[in-house]
Write a structure and sequence with these properties.
Mean pLDDT: 84
Oligomer: single chain
Number of helices: 4
Distance between the termini: 90 Å
Structural class: mainly alpha
CATH class: Mainly Alpha
Strand content: 5-15%
Number of strands: 3
Number of domains: 1
CATH architecture: Orthogonal Bundle
Length: 130
């Protein structure tokens, strides 16, 4: 008799746990949809609605977030600081992809390494090209 009560209790708890997990999955889907809408709104605000490839749109949003944060802070920032900020533009952004974006920006002269690996800054606008 006591075993039957325990089995019933375990099954009831397991069912409640499964219901909670299902609600979490539904909330994650809803969160994902909202984050996509935010990204679309940012793209529209920044004039990116005509970018044809989604990857290009995500890259441009991440690059813009890097440039804006570096301008705002006016000091060298680490890759991890820039990455955390860029994730607000694309919650699915992988760190490896983001590092690729940084190196592309460096190749185009938009940002520079600041002293050592993993630190970034804006080029000094006051220097004249040689």
């Amino acid at each position: 008799m006591e075993d039957e009560k325990l089995i019933y209790f375990e099954k009831r708890l397991q069912n409640e746990l499964e219901a909670i997990e299902e609600r979490i999955r539904e909330l994650e889907k809803e969160k994902s949809a909202l984050l996509r809408q935010i990204a679309k709104a940012r793209a529209d605000r920044q004039g990116l609605q005509f970018v044809s490839r989604r990857n290009s749109q995500n890259r441009v949003l991440a690059e813009n977030s890097v440039l804006m944060l570096l301008r705002e802070k006016a000091k060298p920032l680490s890759t991890s600081e820039l990455y955390r900020n860029a994730r607000f533009t694309n919650y699915d952004l992988k760190e490896g992809t983001f590092r690729t974006y940084l190196h592309r920006m460096k190749s185009r002269g938009l940002i520079l390494m600041a002293g050592h690996v993993g630190m970034w800054k804006l080029p000094d606008a006051t220097k004249s090209p040689v």
